[in-house]
Fold this protein.
Amino acid sequence: MRELNTTRLHMRPFTLGDGDDLARLHGDAELMAYMRGGMQTRAEAIAELARYNDCWATHGVGMWALFAEGAFIGECGLRLPYNNAQGIRLRFIIDRPNWGRGYAGEAAAASLSFAFESASIECIRAVAHERNPASQRVLERAGLTVEKFSRSENGDEIRIYVITAETWTARL
């Protein structure tokens, strides 16, 4: 079951036809300000799309394209960081017209449910910058807790969050 439906969202793995939507999302400097590497060119976003598909094929998890009322509104899902050292990470990006509507939390919860109940993942981490309290709230409401404080590659203060399958199951 790779496609998910929540109360308000349809979540499906990205396809090659989603390149324009992903390029628009990843080309927005404000949206990508807290993401590793920041804003992406169209070519970089298309390369990212290929990595999303590779993650699904190799690990059975990946990023979902998010749709509300039939319109593309962002992405959420599970991915391996570039260095693969920290295990699977939860990530979400919602386009600006849809901020503050609870979509990130809804998609994050569905992603975690899939990870722990369908994909048998034992532990998931997420990163939120200190200057991004909205993402911190999404992660905390989804049940993740701060594992440690650290610094990103460019020196920004970040929080590393974690949740285990055991903790997720205990919340239900």
